[in-house]
Every structure is written in structure tokens, then in C-alpha cells.
Design goal:
- It is a single chain.
- By secondary structure, the chain is of the alpha+beta class.
- About 45% of the residues lie in helices and about 15% in strands.
- The protein contains 7 helices and 6 strands.
- A 6-stranded antiparallel beta sheet has the order 1-2-3-4-6-5.
- Helix 3 (about 30-55) packs across helix 7 (about 195-220).
- The longest helix is centred in the first third of the chain and has 26 residues, at about 30-55.
- The radius of gyration is 19 Å and the shape is globular.
């Protein structure tokens, strides 16, 4: 039986923010399993299988997050994460330096998109060289991105700009990483059977950007 997110999903995340300890979690573990983990896994597997049917050549594996924080990195935080997510990403230890697709749900809502979690400085330097020397491809992508309204461009910028290319490339040039994100508050779509279709449409729209940055990362120096 398919399970989808519900008001119980959001209630769990809100209550976890105020009761982030082992005793509370153990008492509510079945709620977590039924209303968070199970629907997240089912959604992830459905979207992944359907996406890879159309794009079997992509080097993507499915990963669903764990709610448990690494005990070595609590830094005063509770032992449980305040959100859950899944990613379509490359295998290996350096996955965070490669482009990936993601979906995340939390108390305040949900988001999805594509980006590089922790881009290597060499990758972004290569990106700037591509803009300087061969701007045609990324200019077309940047122009198309500027004309849509679903996703926003994010990524920390250098405090000292590396250069000032003309618009719309100026929005991309000085970032330490690239993330293309779509943010949503809690709404009926989160609870709907259509959520998988929405994610498929979004990931497909971002595929040209994924292909560009995947090739950039694979090229090396």
C-alpha cells in the first residue's frame, strides 16, 4: 500500500524540534516510521525508477538520509535531524563535489532541486574559465533559467568578486557553489499523489544544468 506524507508527517517534525532527545523519539518511533521514513522511501524509489527509465545513462544512485545525527558532530544539537531527504547522486566518497538532485521535507515545508553540495574550488575556477573563454553554452542555460520562476539560484558568493561578466552570467560567476532550488511551504501538493510527477518534471527541467556541471566536474584540469 502506498503511503504519502500527511499532517502527521509535519506534526512529527514540529514536535521533534521541541523534544529532540532519545526518550521522546523512542516513544514516537512508530510515528516516524509510518509518516516520515516509509513515505519518503516510497516517493524516492518511485521518482528514481521513473527518472532512470528515461535517463539510464546517468551515473546516479539513490540515497535516503538517516534521521540520526553523527554523534561526533552534535555540537550541542539534539541527536536527530530536523529534516529528511533523498538524493540522486554519484557513488563514492567525493559525491558532495559532484552535481546531484534532491528532495527534502521539514516542519516548515519542502524543497527540491539540483546542485553541488560542496563544490571543489578547482571546479568553480574551471567554471569561471569556461565563462571567460567559451560562454555560449552557459549563457543559453543562464538565459533560460532567468526566464523561469520555479527555481532560484543559490550558492555562497566570494566576498571579493573574481570578475564581472555581463548579465545574466554575473549571477553565476562569483559563486563558491551552485544550487538551483524550488521552495514550498506545507501545502496540499506535499500530501498529493501528484508529488512524484512534480519532482519528475522539476528534475527533467534541471537536466541540462546537471549535464553541464557533471561534464565540468568530469573534465578535470
Amino acid at each position: 500500500m502506498d503511503k504519502r506524507f500527511s499532517e502527521e508527517t509535519i506534526r512529527f517534525f514540529w514536535e521533534l524540534q521541541f523534544n529532540n532527545d532519545r526518550d521522546w523519539f523512542q516513544a514516537h518511533k512508530q510515528q516516524y516510521t509510518d509518516h516520515v521514513l516509509t513515505p519518503l522511501r516510497q516517493l524516492a524509489e518511485e521518482v528514481y525508477d521513473r527518472f532512470l527509465e528515461e535517463h539510464s545513462d546517468l551515473p546516479l544512485t539513490l540515497r535516503v538520509s538517516r534521521i540520526y545525527r553523527d554523534a561526533r558532530r552534535l555540537h550541542g544539537k539534539g541527536p536527530y535531524k530536523k529534516s529528511m531527504w533523498f538524493t540522486f547522486r554519484t557513488a563514492g566518497e567525493d559525491w558532495s563535489r559532484q552535481p546531484a538532485f534532491w528532495f527534502e521535507v521539514r516542519a516548515e515545508g519542502y524543497n527540491y532541486g539540483m546542485g553541488i553540495y560542496s563544490a571543489a574550488p578547482a571546479t568553480m575556477a574551471r567554471f569561471r574559465r569556461e565563462i571567460d573563454q567559451h560562454p555560449e553554452t552557459i549563457r543559453k542555460l543562464a538565459q533560460a533559467f532567468a526566464q523561469q520562476e520555479r527555481f532560484v539560484l543559490e550558492g555562497e558568493c566570494y566576498k571579493r568578486p573574481k570578475g564581472t561578466p555581463p548579465a545574466p552570467l554575473d549571477q553565476w560567476y562569483n559563486r563558491k557553489s551552485i544550487n538551483l532550488c524550488s521552495y514550498h511551504p506545507v501545502d496540499q501538493q506535499l500530501y498529493s499523489q501528484d508529488l512524484a510527477e512534480t519532482l519528475l518534471e522539476g528534475f527533467t527541467a534541471l537536466l541540462p544544468y546537471y549535464n553541464y556541471f557533471q561534464a565540468l566536474c568530469a573534465r578535470g584540469d
